[in-house]
Design a protein that fits this description.
314 residues; mainly alpha; Methane Monooxygenase Hydroxylase, Chain G, domain 1; 2 domains
């Protein structure tokens, strides 16, 4: 049997399995046009997604940089999903996917110079005022990455963790997530416009996502592995690298870039959403740690202070 005959046989079996006539599909190929790069990538649509609100040229850098971030977030969520829903996961598969995720965050961490060194401070300080109350805080995909990475208790504001347990309703836990501090006056309970709009758009979706990943997040998935697999050095190093890259290295790159612009004037500026961005962002305040059981007491105590560049267990 020739290769062509074999392929037609396989196609026949494929379409028969879904109740389709392979001849109809083959005939359709006679009238299809060749695929092009610009059609496949949707280049024209992609390049028309940048809508500036001002006449400042560097605003384009700001918009496109954040759009690139969102595309990488989508890639990360795709990799996390493959781990979460793999019923027969192996340490090799787990480690390999974590390696991919970490490389995406490595790109995010190292790319802040594109924005940090690529915009004039004077231009930024002009167009930023047109963005209020929008903020990178409102990245829904980034919040989903957090929910899918660790148990919910590790995302609760450190001041309220003792009041939250597995019997706490998801809606109540949501109201005490660490990032609520950036949009809420905890003395009065009043929410900022930044937070209110974010919740109106995404809270119901987040609750469903939180429930879905409650037992499928990376940390729970890791702890469900056989003890021998949990001690796999390659996997543990991949987990530690991911944790530190997301919650220290990437956060600090963002922190430093924000500081260049927001501290550039005579008076320190607020973030566009109105948050106390320094306390909200710096890892030493909230101690965002996805996999606390993989770090020593000293490492946990010095989280966000020590560099821990290698993050390697020998």
């Amino acid at each position: 049997m020739s290769k062509t005959d074999e392929l037609i046989k396989q196609l026949g079996a494929k379409y028969e399995a879904i109740g389709q006539d392979v001849n109809v599909h083959l005939e359709g190929l006679l009238h299809s046009t060749p695929i092009t790069y610009w059609d496949y990538i949707q280049t024209d649509a992609l390049l028309n997604l940048q809508t500036q609100r001002t006449n400042q040229p560097d605003e384009l850098v700001f918009i496109m940089y954040h759009q690139v971030n969102e595309l990488l977030f989508k890639m990360i969520l795709s990799e996390v999903k493959q781990i979460a829903f793999n019923a027969d996961i192996t340490t090799a598969f787990f480690s390999e996917r974590l390696g991919r995720i970490s490389r995406y965050f490595d790109v995010l961490s190292s790319s802040f110079t594109v924005m940090g060194e690529g915009m004039e401070v004077a231009q930024y300080m002009k167009f930023r005022n047109t963005l209020t109350p929008a903020s990178g805080f409102q990245s829904a995909q980034y919040r989903k990455i957090e929910f899918a990475s660790t148990e919910l208790i590790n995302l609760i504001d450190i001041r309220f963790r003792s009041t939250i347990d597995r019997d706490t309703p998801f809606s109540n836990a949501f109201d005490h997530l660490y990032w609520q501090a950036a949009g809420k006056d905890h003395a009065t309970g009043k929410k900022s416009t930044l937070l209110r709009l974010f919740e109106e758009r995404y809270m119901d979706e987040f609750i469903i996502f939180m429930e879905t990943y409650n037992t499928l997040n990376l940390w729970t998935k890791f702890k469900s592995l056989p003890l021998e697999d949990q001690e796999n050095v390659t996997l543990k190093n991949a987990m530690r690298h991911y944790d530190h890259t997301v919650n220290v290295r990437w956060v600090m790159a963002h922190y430093d870039a924000a500081g260049k612009y927001l501290n550039s004037g005579k008076e320190k500026a607020e973030a566009t959403g109105g948050s106390d961005w320094q306390k909200y962002m710096h890892p030493r305040y909230q101690k965002r740690i996805f996999f606390p059981g993989l770090w020593s007491e000293k490492e946990l105590e010095n989280w966000g202070i020590d560099n821990l560049e290698s993050c390697v267990i020998l």
